[in-house]
Batch of 2 targets.
Target 1
Amino acid sequence: MWNTTAATKILGIDYPILQGPFGGGLSTVELTTAVSKWGGLGGFGAYTLTPAEIYQVHQQICSNTDKPYNLNLWVSDTDSIGTVDDALFEGVKEAYRPYFEQLGLEMPPKPSFKSHFENQLQAVLDIKPKVFSFMFGLLSEAIVEECHRKGMVLIGTATSVDEAVALEHVGVDLIVASGFEAGGHRPSFLEKAEHSLVGTFALVQLIREKVKIPVIAAGGIVNGRSMASALILGADAVQIGTAFLACDESGATRVHRDFLFSASAKYTDLTRSYTGRLGRGGRTTISQYGIRNPDNTLPFPLQSAFMADLRKAALAQRREDLVFFWSGQIAPLLKFREAKLLMNSLIEETQAILQGA
């Protein structure tokens, strides 16, 4: 059967379809459980959650389905210890002042941040989700062994062949090959994200030649044609982000979901302007400024905190031209606003193509 792969066997799912684990409030219990119930693997991005919130989300998902789901964390959740020096902050503040003034906002104070990953990781070890995925780095071999002892399947994310080899070396069970077409952050960890911009289908084939564990294709996959193509090229499953983000069950705002179906969605940028880490979303004047001035941002997540009030005000004032809506390059091909319709279409179209082939 076309839908039985090494990945589906390891994950205990019916179809080789993973829903991308969105961060920043974009994941929901409703979407995660729905995808798992329909035979895929729902995903929940927890990198902004406290340990108590992780426990709560896990309980809610498990009360809605006994199917496996994927809980995701960021190994590296900050690029700055504490805060930054005054000179850098003042430079960034002056650079972005015109955008704040357009919305009638005061300039924000200098932000600070403390990593939460160790506490989050302990929560994951306590609740023992069936599938635990991570981005932006490597787990230690000792942690990998402990996760396996607790019965968890581990998924690492790679944006290059070298990252995939490193993930296999520490003992993960599957690797997400994240191509540069994908929306959201580029989860690179061995080199700068700007140096790890390989397309999905090339990356899948390159990684497939260098590792023995199953590979999951992510980026630019929106329908059965792209899913079937990924499987033919050697992927054992696909991870789909933008198409699920566009569904009503996601945590995206209505204006965000409407943007994904608009003509403007054909324009996306990779920029550090909104968070401090390179990420793909809809083109704005601010994203274009960030491309022209890549070093004039605060480290992640200080830039996110700095830009938070601007984003809220832009949404409230309907200045969508200043809001960075996460989006992959494939958004112009979106068709479905309901997750069930999307799942059905992916399964039926992929089956028709592969059985016909």
Target 2
Amino acid sequence: MKPDKLADGVFRVSAKIGTRDLFEGIWPLPNGVMLNSYIVRGQKKTVLVDLVKDWDGAVLAVEEQLSELDLKNTGIDYLVINHMEPDHTGAMASFVEKNPKVEILCSEKAVPLIKWFYGIEKNVRAVKDGETLDLGGKTLEFIMTPNIHWPETMMTYDIEDRILFSCDAFGSFGRYEHCFDDELSEEEKELLSGETERYFANIVSTFSSFVIRGIAKVEGHPLSIVAPSHGVVWRKEPHKIVDWYHRLATYMQGPREKEITLVWSSMYGNTAALVPSLVAGIESEQIPVHVFEVPQTHESFVLEKAWRSEGLIIGMPTYEYKMFPPMYHILDILERSHVNDRKAIRFGSYGWSGGAQKQFSEFVDLMKLDLQGCVEYQGAPTEEDKKKAYELAKSMAKAIREA
């Protein structure tokens, strides 16, 4: 890979991560992910914005691109750390060892994290909100955007070139052959669409209120380019990704899309037997439905669609007097991510004793769900159960459609 030029003296140095590992140790990467760092070279000083970790050859890939710019191990005066998560800082100790005079600039809350994570205290300086750094012909402004998605997070803005280095904000999963949004093939655009929403739901959704505040904070900064630490660089439509994130963040409070996510698990097929009736009821009202079976489907993909949907239908059998464990895990993830205030239906079978509904009711309270009804039955569902499920799903879909 070669460095990608964003403007005179501004470059992306990046790495493409494969599909083997999990992002943050939990989220699958069927299409990989990009790790992006950035060089800003002024007439007097040069800055590296964010690092990578030693992951799938990322450090070597970035070092080779720095060599292309005659910057490997020399010539970098400042290291700006927007966010302390290890995918952006993992190479810090080795980088500082090779660049002992580099000054690390970060938010005040990041200073102790640098010590705790990497044992580095020398040449570390906290910058303030709105503080600027003169590089000679280029000026960087530091913008504090806490909790997008750690408390120490900030963004860095190149005033002359109007480039926002936004770190995890405005990012996406996926590897892309091209750097910029206007270079993508149709296939890459389709990939970007889904992987942006999945990234937001998995990584940022819990912090949606802070996303909205952060967007408000950068509104006064003209944008020619949005350069996140994951995904593509937005130069043709920089405001598209900002507006997209704003819309996704508003799903926390609503309104959301007029869609329903149906997620179910079944031990011997008795809970599964009700799924066709529920889907038919939803489709009778021309409402899109996303259907997932767990644990066959990873929670990452369930969360992506549940985040955008006004309705949830949850199906699971009773297992040892409680909910079937894979579904408990799904609901725990949804609750942690603040998938709240949705219309909901629950269905499922039981053998010798029930119990799943009692435990499900705890999530109804935690997630403030508007429970429309429940279809629970012993053994296999009867035709009456199937009819009830159809009518419940149809009624909920109609209410969502007409809202």
